[in-house]
Amino acid sequence: MGFKAGIVGLPNVGKSTLFNSLSNARAVSANFPFCTIEPNIGMVPVPDTRLDKLKELVKPQNLVPAVVKIVDIAGLVKGASKGEGLGNKFLAHIRECEAIIHVLRCFQDENIIHVENTIDPIRDKEIIDTELQLKDMESLEKKLEGARKMSKGGNKDALRQAEIIEKFIDFVGQGKNLRMMDATEEEWEVIADVGAMTAKPVLYVCNVDQDSLISENDFVKRVREEVKKENARVIVISALFEEELAEFEDPEEKMLFLESYGLKEPGLAQVIRQAYDLLNLQTYFTAGVKEVRAWTIHKNTKAPQAAGIIHSDFERGFIRAEVIKFEEFVKYKSEAAVKEAGKMSVEGKEYVVQDGDIMHFRFNV
Fold first, then answer.
1. How far apart are CA 335 and CA 345, in angstroms?
2. SS3 for 88?
3. Is the separation of the CB atoms in 128 and 100 below 8 Å?
4. pTM to 2 decimals?
5. Residue in 210, 208, 191 with CA at minimum distance from that of residue 199
6. pLDDT score recorded for residue 35
7. Does residue 116 contact residue 123 with C-beta atoms inside 8 Å?
8. How far is residue 17's CA from residue 64's CA, in Å, rounded to a whole number?
9. Is 154 left (phi over 0), alpha (psi -120 to 50) or beta?
10. pLDDT band at 319 (very low <50, low <70, confident <90, very high)
11. Starting from the edge strand earliest in sequence, which strands make up the sheet with 99-105, in order?
């Protein structure tokens, strides 16, 4: 499935360094703007200890984790909405993503230039917000123009659409991101084809120096306070630390390095899990001796549609799903033992798949 989260931010805030650490794909990381001209795309596995536990119990020949596509989008600058700094092209890449990972520079380093010459993550955030808002405004105004043309003949639906679009335009015009707007499902549906960038869920990643991993610096505190009104998530990482950590091949050495900073896991693990959650995704598993695999679905997906992720025939000919809760599998240690204990349920077409379900589908085509 093509779930994509885009990494955005001003030039030289650590986007490509973060991407390099997240992905096997190696984006160019250099001390000048626009070193990433085309968006690099990495398929990043979602850290999940449940998969490791299933591997231990089932001992499969193959293990396949869930993945998220991470897109490294070149740095935006003031005027991007008007085409500055190749802005139009990069804004189009953001529109294609389902969620945004917004990297903010929260460290001082005179050896790494900043396009605004000073370090101020709130100002940097506002620059990006403004460019995305301006582009959303432009898209909404085009949409409004079309609705007004259709309403001239007395089309009541078009009149209603125009009223709704005006409501969104007014909100963005106040310098607010659309994800903060309280609108009905019907209203959101009207502007769905616009691909509004400020409506996308966002994860703010504060890129700090290594010392600030232990004790948050003032830059991070300011960011946390600023984004409260958006009800947004904030993660603190050091992209350079993550890059250094990735060089350790021995798991024990890696763990010792983490512990030396008082950390239990890499910051990247948090970024990926949060991005996965931002995209409104969850995981179910299939578990057999040939393969244990994590499958990605949207939350509230019903059993036939979940089966269709494996193969369209599974959905078309769906009969039933045999479901084992992850906790029950761990408790009884095998599918046979779970069945014997009467802990496997048989579910029909209306069953809503839960995160962590271990599933076997019966179908007939």
1. 12
2. helix
3. no
4. 0.84
5. 191
6. 43
7. yes
8. 26
9. left
10. very high
11. 40-45, 67-72, 4-8, 99-105, 202-207, 233-237
pLDDT, tens digit, for every residue of 216-244? 899 999 999 999 888 788 999 998 898 88
pLDDT at residue 27 in the model: 45
* CA–CA dist 33, 78 (Å, integer): 13
DSSP of 193-254, one letter per residue?
Answer: GG--GGGS-EEEEEE--GGGGTS--HHHHHHHHHGGGGT-EEEEE-HHHHHHHHT--SHHHH
Q: How many residues does the chain have?
A: 365
What is the token pair recorded at 155?
């089309």
CA-to-CA distance for 317 and 362, rounded, in angstroms? 8
SS3 111: coil
With bands split at pLDDT 50, 70 and 90, how would you rate the model's confidence at 78? Answer: low
- Nearest-5° Cα angle at 100, 98 to 105: 170
- How would you label 279-300 residue by residue, b for 16+ Cβ within 10 Å and e otherwise? bebbbbbbbeeeebbbbbbeee
Determine the Cα–Cα distance for residues 93 and 7; give it in Å rounded to an integer: 10
Whole-number Å distance between alpha carbons of 314 and 299? 19
Q: At 234, give phi and psi (nearest 5°).
A: -130, 130
Token representation of residue 12: 């030289």
- 11: how many CB neighbours lie within 10 A of its CB? 22
Backbone torsion region of residue 116, taken as left when φ is above 0, otherwise alpha when ψ lies between -120 and 50, otherwise beta: alpha
Residues 6 or more apart in contact with residue 2 via CB below 8 angstroms? 69
The values of phi and psi at residue 360, to 5°, are -135, 125
* Residues 6/275, Cβ–Cβ less than 8 Å: no
pLDDT attached to residue 86? 46
- Three-class secondary structure of residue 300 per DSSP: coil
